Amino acid sequence: MTFPENGRSADEILSELDARSSQDVQWRDGKTAVYIFNAGEDISALKKQAYTAFIEENGLGPLAFPSLRQMEEDVIAMALDILHGGEGATGKMTSGGTDSITMAMKTARDYARAEKGVSGPLNIVLPYSAHLAFDKAAHLMDIEVRRIPVEEGAFTADVTAMADACDAHTIMVVGSAPNFPYGIIDPIEALSEMCEAKDLWLHVDACVGGFLAPFVRMNGAEIPPFDFEVPGVHSMSADLHKYGYCAKGASTVLFRSEALYQYMPFDFDNWSGTQMVTPTLAGTRPGGAISAAWAVMNHLGIAGYCEKQALVTKARAQIEAGLRQLGFEILGEPKLGLMAFHHPDFHAYALWGKMAEKGWFTSLTKDPPSLHLMLSPKHAEVANVYLADLEKSMTEITPDTEHVKARYS
Ligand SMILES: *Cc1c(COP(=O)(O)O)cnc(C)c1O
């Protein structure tokens, strides 16, 4: 496209946007189980209105926009409230999980250098299943990534092997709550004990579970301690734009204390402009991401989240039961809204293709090759459709036992 000489009317532009979106996955029907968190039309409408109310305002300027400063403080306080942030716990909103993880790593690095005299090459130790955002941040900061294979069968962090991988140059140890590939929570208490014994910074990546697990627990499920309730947890990442059902561009990075957080903000003044103190890498920060998060959290409240998250776990339980009947094996014991599964006789990727033909857009897990679902409240309505389509897909591809066995062995 060339830059248009003359513009077009707003009406024409808006209808073209509409037309363009028709080529995308039709996620509103519930057949998308990745990228989108569908909590219903009412939540969608509220977040749009609340976002547009502050679409021009800038979170970079807390003095100019005390409204945004206060809303961000409220959002962080609410997050800490459900994640057992004790006295002195603090944090900031970021643009997403990758941003939160990057800032947590930067903070842990500066803390290690300043408080523990760590110097020279640095590393982080994490389970193989932890998110690739850690690799991005490590790449930026020239930090070595030590990924340790997960426990066979359980798909959880191997704490002993992780302990062996730590040394005097380790600035952070990571556990996920849950990890993305399997949807399983790592043994955070065991990681915490190991980190406390070695005086290491433990980060819990609750990007996808931070606003899901607390409510699933309130609904009665047994969720092991994974947040600041566990004493060795120094920092956490928890995304609002996932199971918080907030507008995209909203996450939280949280710290046990101000003494840890103090290493996060940037404070520079060596230029001809004025001094800049910014909590994250961003300069300009979208006001709408803050106001939309504040609005959705206050609209749903604990009761509203419990209701939405009950639909997520209901969908997961229904799909799990159906999958077992169809002969699938579920990887480990997922307790939240994500799961991965494979079939002894059918290759997962071939099934994925057949499901895609039926309008399903989902993720995959590579080790071992598996289908993957990240479920939303909406999926409680279509769980049976998914299972029926999967059963049909199994009749449309040739069982490929030898091939599959070879791949899994
Ligand atoms: C989504 C996710 C991230 C990254 O978050 P983005 O918002 O996509 O940058 C990190 N960790 C886990 C476990 C995630 O699921």
Task: Give a verbal description of the structure.
The protein has 409 residues and is α/β, with parallel strands linked by helices. It folds into two domains: 250 residues, 3-Layer(aba) Sandwich (Aspartate Aminotransferase, domain 2), CATH 3.40.640.10; 89 residues, Aspartate Aminotransferase, domain 1 (Alpha-Beta Complex). The chain contains 13 helices and 13 strands. The longest helix has 39 residues. The model has no long low-confidence stretch (mean pLDDT 96). The site of pyridoxal-5'-phosphate has 13 residues, from helix 4.
Spell out the helices and strands N to C.
HHHEHEHEHEHEHEEHEEHEEHEEHH
Question: Distance between the terminal alpha carbons, to the nearest Å?
Answer: 49 Å
Bound molecules: pyridoxal-5'-phosphate
CATH class of the largest domain: Alpha Beta
Mean pLDDT: 96
State the total count of DSSP E strands. Answer: 13
- Shape category: globular
With strands numbered from the N-terminus, the spatial order across the biggest sheet is 1-7-6-5-4-2-3
- Give the CATH superfamily of the largest domain: Type I PLP-dependent aspartate aminotransferase-like (Major domain)
Provide tags for this entry.
pyridoxal phosphate; globular; 7-stranded mixed β-sheet; single chain; 2 domains; 13 helices; about 400 residues; about 15% strand; Aspartate Aminotransferase, domain 1; alpha/beta; lyase; Aspartate Aminotransferase, domain 2
